[in-house]
Design brief:
Blueprint (H helix, E strand, L loop, with lengths): L2 H5 L5 E4 L10 H7 L6 H22 L5 H15 L6 H8 L1 H4 L4 H12 L3 E6 L3 H10 L6 E4 L10 H11 L6 E5 L2 H10 L2 E4 L17 E2 L2 H9 L9
Parallel strand pairs: 1-2, 1-4, 2-3, 4-5, 5-6
Helix pairs in contact: 2-3, 3-4, 4-5, 7-11
This protein binds lactic acid.
Amino acid sequence: VTAADVGGRDVGAVFFDLFGTLLPLGPLDDACDQLAAGRGREIATRWRARQIEAAWLRTIMGRWADFDAITLDALATTLQELEVRADDAAVADAAGAFARLPIDPVAADVIRNLREAELAVGILTNASRPTVDAVVARLEVSFDHVLSVDAVRRFKPDRAVYDLAVRATGLTPDRIGFVTGNGWDAVGAAAFGFRVAWLASAAAAVLPPVDAPAVMRLTWSEIHAAFAGGVTKPRNS
Ligand code: LAC
């Protein structure tokens, strides 16, 4: 008997966002602290906003660059704005912090349990193909699908990106679960038709008001039940 049978919910695959979801962004503060002691959090927060903004602008404008290039440019721009001086090598090293982020151990357990419940599990990310491959190679969990936006040269929340999961699985969007910590990604995925779980970063966090269909506001401990019908098989490890 499969989890879907037991739970009565016919989700066939669950996809996860990468940065800010499987990989919490906290360590970026430390990487940025190397550029300006005591200002790591301020720099990292602005950097992330600039990174996402550039991805959206480039998608709308039809001027593709991969996420690694965007990430480095966004950090350089941030440092300029905040009047932090750093040499190119230090900036490049800090930019590489995205690719070095560790996985949330709780997320790793959720993924293992979903796979044991016979759900296909994937990553759907703005990260470049080389970066997501490098990340997956060092994680101690396996995925059925690892999808980078590089295949469509557009960034989330463009529908073409979410459609990659449909093409990879052959499932209709309403049979695909999607988990993200990013509110803008949650509304984008919900508008596409996925069943979305949003891991809100704070109690006061609110979704962008864009008339998207409802999303489930959940914590990691609720993800398995939401998509696998409450079946959690015991784990050996
Ligand atoms: C990603 C962006 C949302 O990993 O950070 O796709």
